[in-house]
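Course assignment 3, question 2. Fill in each field.
Student: A.L.
Task: Predict the tertiary structure for the chain below.
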Amino acid sequence: MTNKPFALGLAGAFALTATLAVAQQSDMTIGQQLEPPHLDPTSAAAGAIDSVLYSNVFEGLTRFGPDGSVGPGLAREWEISDDGLTYTFHLAEGVKFHDGTTMDSEDVKFSLDRARAEDSVNAQKALFSGIESVEATDPATVTVTLKNPDGNFLFNLAWGDAVIVAPESIENIKTTPIGTGAFMFDNWVQGDRIELTKNPEYWGEPAMLDAVTFKFISDPTAAFAAMMAEDLDVFPAFPAPENLPQFDADPRFKVLVGSTEGETILAINNKLPPLDDVRVRQAIAHAVNRHEIIDGAQFGYGTPIGTHFAPHHPDYVDLTEMSQHDPEKARTLLEEAGVSLPLQLKMTLPPPSYARRGGEIIAAQLRQVGIEAEIENVEWAQWLEATFRGYDYGLTVISHTEPLDINIYARPDYYFQYDNAEFQKLMEEVGVESDPDKRSEMFRQAQTTIAEDYVNAYLFQLPLLTVAKTGVEGLWENAPTQAADMTAVHWAE
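Answer field:
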């Protein structure tokens, strides 16, 4: 008889300990390969900023859901005038910024006016160029008037570049971001991690975690070691796809294979001679073997693309045959263009594994047709400053993770400096066209145009490869925008 109470007591103690362990598991550590250059999503093209802050810290009037749909954000509902020019947004009630100040229509007006201002440094300033005026009708209502109808307007407002910020905190936003989201910025140890804590006064559905730490690990081998040691709980966009089978076979982990909006390209500086000759760009495209790159850099993960459009989009056109691997044709095109071989070009490669590994393979492929690509490995901040803003490159490998972003080819000052007046006019027409069938035809025409002009060499659609501990729930399997949305992530009970 004396054993029974002891056994019950021991079992009860174990149960209590297990319960406490579960209760105490309220934080999560997320691996991320790229560290943001700063923390203002409204003034940089770096997707790493959105990966940490989108939806977690900052919110927009609308937002992307995990399936890519656009739904309410800080605007809970809206009306659109019959002529498609006026949008009346009704804001959520009781929204406060993390510093305790109230978020109202004046903050929305400030954010949109700042994004579209003449001196705006917003990387996606073009998204806001169609706005005629923004009026703070009353504290809870914003009226936006457009110059022309824009079927993409609600979609554009869901981008990380369109989040709502406050004039009171804008001066220090790059180091101390203050938003309205379910998590608050807590600490940034540069070179190591960013820490977020739960917002106890969040206006919407509260976060299920008390704290989230984003840990920056650029080296694929170190990322593998950190996951295996269980120092990390999740690593979205895991940089070492060769290790996925090992994780998949380990009961401690699960592997999610999803899609992204990331068109991975060998970007070409279209204004740099002799790359300003379409025959030279076409030669580069034919020198590249996509399948070797996907197999060698991605270990088979990736969908070949022949234009700047996501294969899962209903309007996608498969144009890969236009730039199929053909070294002999590449040599002929270079000869026709009068290029003296070997042609020396600088290829800048940012830190992501797909870029560094893929760039090495591409350089070897180009060498076979007489093009010597001198590789320069750069950090993310260097790539943004010198390559993206300074045009100091010949070639670069990068994945464009913004959704439905083919309109970047209508910007002559964009970093690959493609200037086609007919394409620019087509993008303007897409923006005001409301008929779905006509818009689809325009998107198909746009894809064909940039493929025929060989603006860039199109490689593959970047997959979302996520490794997580088995107890993690609520992760996005796909990435309709570059984000690690942690607002619904939790530990399984």
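Instructor remarks: The chain is about 30% helix and 25% strand. The first helix runs from residue 3 to 24.
Grade: pending
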